[in-house]
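Supplementary Note 3. Input sequence used for the single-chain structure prediction.
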Amino acid sequence: MSRSQWAIGRRTPPRDPAALLTLVRSDQRWRIGAFVAIVGVLAAIALLLSPPAVVAYDAGVVADRAIRAPRSVSYTSESLTIVEREKAQAAVPRQFSRNPAVLVAESGKLQSELAAIGRVRDSTVSREQKIVALTRLPELALAAASATDLADLIPAEWDALTQGLERTLQSVLTPDIRPDQLDLVRADVPKAIPAAWSDRQKRVALELVRSHVLANVAFDPVATQLLQQAARGAVGPVLVRVTGGEVIVREGQVVSPADVEKLRALGLANADIDWKSAIGLFLWSLLIAAVLAIFVSRYAEDTWADDRRVIVVGLSLIMLTAVARVVVPSHALAVYLVPYAAVAMMLTVLVGGRTALATQIAAALHVGIMSGQVELVAYVLVPALLGMGAVRRATTAREFVAGAVFVVAGNVGVIAAFLLVGRSTDALGLLQLATAAVAGGLASGLVAFGGMVLLGHLFRITTVFELRELADPNHPLLRQLLLRTPGTYHHSLLVANLAEHAAEVIGADPLVARVGAYYHDVGKMRNPSAFIENQTGTNPHDELDPVVSAGIVSAHIRDGLALADRYHLPEVIREMIPGHHGTSVIRYFYQQALERGQRVEESAFRHPGPKPRTREAGIVMLADGTEASVRSLAAKAPEAIRAMVERIVGERIADGQLDDCDLTLRDVHRIKDAFCELLAGVYHERIPYPEDRITQLAPPGAAPDRADQLSR
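The predicted structure, written as discrete structure tokens, is reproduced below.
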């Protein structure tokens, strides 16, 4: 992109939708602007969902009576202006742009063909053999007659042909040639051939030149569009004058858009919209959308960076606003039946508590400006806060039941408080409101749970319930891992324990870490015997080159990603498969190659990556390396375990494998302590059995063997 184009791009949005989407995703200001524009406008439409309107006639309606103009009036006709501008646009001819590469390419091809023909002519074979060779040239397809002419050309004719043929082609291709003009241009080729040439020269030149006549101009949509826009812009507004007494609409006539404009200009068809209030609601909607966008972008960065979650937030606000617009203020009782808190509870699970709170506040403010009642603002907001507190983790369905109970309490509490403040003693009204509050609160739990499952599936947002399904040992992929690679399965269980414990210690998501550890090595099922934990006999790598062995080991990343796609693992779990190795070196085979004196690049022994980008993925990487290394220790005393943990973690940090995830040094220190604590418990020392006592208790003849077995 040139500097001038870039300068223009900074002032105006790019026309290419893909470029605009990239800009919205990468630039914070554009992202906020897009959110405000889309969500703000849609929410404004929801706020203006049912504006009052009184129109005498509309376009397409058959008039039931004739209408005359009561007075003269002049006005600018939008419909006629559009028609005239469309006519001007349609009158713009299609624009074409020249492609200079056509002449260069075809001239080069012609020179190659002449060179090939010259080689055949200069050969020492007979005339008949030359003719056959010319018809079989791969550079061009010559007819037998043309080949005969070429073979019979005397040297002077050939020299004149080779010198003048390129000029002939250039003279033909110099004018602009559109695709629809090719036949005409090829028919005119004889006019460009020198008249002094012999008939044989002309016949050969005609065939060679015609084969290189191609269109050198193509349709230019950009230039055409610019001219069309200029033509539209050149058409000024169409001024219409209506004379008093003129018949505007005749009885039985279909009313046209131009007729409606005349009626409105005369005041006979008035939409009767309160434009002042409409503009105020529109500005209010944009303001609320801007405040929500700025808050989420500052205090919920993970949510703001995820397009799917941002869409869920915007849809939730628009839906709440639209529902409230339907029931507020015309339905005095129905407004209390709406499960407003369901949105906050659902968003708490899908996008986080801060974003859910900000969205609920925005919806409550919309309800407030529609109703003008503080009570309804409190009714939308306060119970939602209680529901959010109940489903903070949403690890079980019982939390949604508890959330519904909390929302019921909040609904009833808000109604009771405002009724007491207002000194209302209407028993029947109180009973109706209480019933609506209970029903709305109970519905909140059900709608929140259903909405979480539905939107989580539609927008591929991983929920706790999906993670629990993936953690089930009977999951098909885990079942295959157990049956086909029992050693890898056992290793994954230990890594999962380490990752879960470390995640709990530093405040990361332990369930994500555990499930990610379960699936991080599923790619080893493709070639189980290539990994030592699954080997029961010889090691196949003993006979292989270290580079080949490294490729086999690294392939389990690619195979794991293929399985993740096949079984539709969520992105947060799929990330663990390449992330548990990152771009680290396959150290064993790299050292083996060096010991064998091979000249190898370290990059050939690195995993494909990418590096872990989340805290949970970083934890799984450290847990994977730590568990495998500690298992290889001959003596697993706490001091040896601590030294190995320090070494593995230090190597990962020094190699830059944790650079892309937000683990702090304090987090890393706590992770190492958690690993050491758990590994020391797994590999604790066992008390030796007193063999002499076992010998006394065991039956004669069996005691020594049994004691040996136990001691082992």
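Residues 96-219 form one domain. The first helix runs from residue 3 to 11.
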